[in-house]
Each structure stands twice: as C-alpha cells, then as structure tokens.
Amino acid sequence: MSRNVWRGQRDARVVTRADLGAWLLKGNADLTGLLGRFADEPHVRRWCVQRSYRLELMEAGQPVLFWASGSRRRDLAYGIWGCGRLLGPPRPEADGPGWWVPLDLTIAPPSAWIGRDVLRVHRELADLEVLRQPQAANPSFVTVRQWEAIRRDFALAAGAGEGPPGTTNPDQVTPRHELP
C-alpha cells in the first residue's frame, strides 16, 4: 500500500477490493449538458475514467453510482443521480489516450437524487471521498460501510447490487466519437 504523505498524514484515498463498496463516476453538470442528455436518455452505457491504479480494480458486476458535480445552480441537487453496475473492465479509447468503462447505469428521476447537502450531514456519509476531495480523479469510490448506508437510507440505490448484472453487451457500447 502506498504511503504518500500529505500534511503529515497517511494517504487515506487508497482503495482495495476489501473496502470497495461501489465506484462513483463523476460528471460536471455545469460544464456539460447532463440535464438535457439524461432527460432524453437516462440509461448510461459508458463513461470516461482517468488512468490510475483504480482501473485495475474495476470489474464486471461491481456497483457504480453517478455523481453530478457543479456549483452554479441553486435549484439543482448536485450529488448522486444514478446507480447501476459495471459491465466489464475499463477500456482504452480507440481514437485517443483516454479510458472508459462499459455500464448498465440509470439516472434516477430528479426527485430521487441524493443531494450533496443531504450527504454532508448524514452521519455515515459525510466522509465520502467525493465530498472530501471533490477535485480528485474519476473514478472515486464509496466504502463498504458507505454503500450499505446508501442502499439502506435512499430509494435511488435500494436493491442495487443484487441479482445478475445487466444484459447489455459491453462490446456493443457506442464509442464516444459516435455519440450525438
């Protein structure tokens, strides 16, 4: 395990399979048209990720949450917007240096979104990595304990992580350069 030191403390960002509850993929709702995109099509089949040791831990069937970041709108519940599963390991972009993961993830209706203000005051979720380090790389993660709390306390994730993964074939996921 790495022992990166920052301000004299051991780096608490390191995730292992043993403490992984779910992946948390992020998108900036202020800079991209996420509201319109997800209103038109709430099913997300792929998402970009940044290369790191975390990609080596990602595999089919693992639960995944979608986090919408931003700060410009007061009428928007930035936070957890969707839930699903990974359909396979990360893959390199065919036309560039980036990486992406195949998904079976659905963005919930806005009434089910879990706002970051709600998460910040939740006794078991106030220490989410995405709240402590909002500018950290994508993917982020939630611990086993945090995932259990999200599933227990919020309808958006109730039942998530149970049963077989989705039936979407990850090899048939639309490449980024073909998206509208």
Helix and strand layout, with pairings?
Layout: E1 5-6, E2 9-10, E3 20-28, H1 34-40, E4 43-49, E5 63-69, E6 79-86, E7 91-92, E8 99-107, E9 114-115, H2 116-121, H3 129-132, E10 140-143, H4 144-153
> What profile does the largest beta sheet have?
8 strands, mixed
Helix-and-strand structural type: alpha+beta
Compute the number of strand runs. Answer: 10
Write down the overall geometry: globular
List unreliable stretches of 5+ residues. Answer: 1-13, 163-180
Distance between the amino and carboxyl termini: 41 Å
Total number of helices = 4
Pattern of helices and strands: EEEHEEEEEEHHEH
Rg, please? Answer: 16 Å
Whole-number mean pLDDT? 82
Strand content: 25-35%
Give the helix proportion (percent range): 10-25%
Describe the 3D structure:
This protein is α+β, with helices and mostly antiparallel strands and 180 residues long. The protein has four helices and ten strands. It has helices at 34-40, 116-121, 129-132, 144-153, and strands at residues 5-6, 9-10, 20-28, 43-49, 63-69, 79-86, 91-92, 99-107, 114-115, 140-143. Strands 3, 4, 5, 6, 7, 8, 9 and 10 form an eight-stranded mixed beta sheet that branches. Strands 1-2 form a two-stranded antiparallel ribbon. The model is unreliable at 1-13 and 163-180 (pLDDT under 50).
Defining traits:
single chain; 180 residues; disordered C terminus; alpha+beta; 15% helix; 10 strands; eight-stranded mixed sheet; disordered N terminus; 4 helices; two-stranded antiparallel ribbon
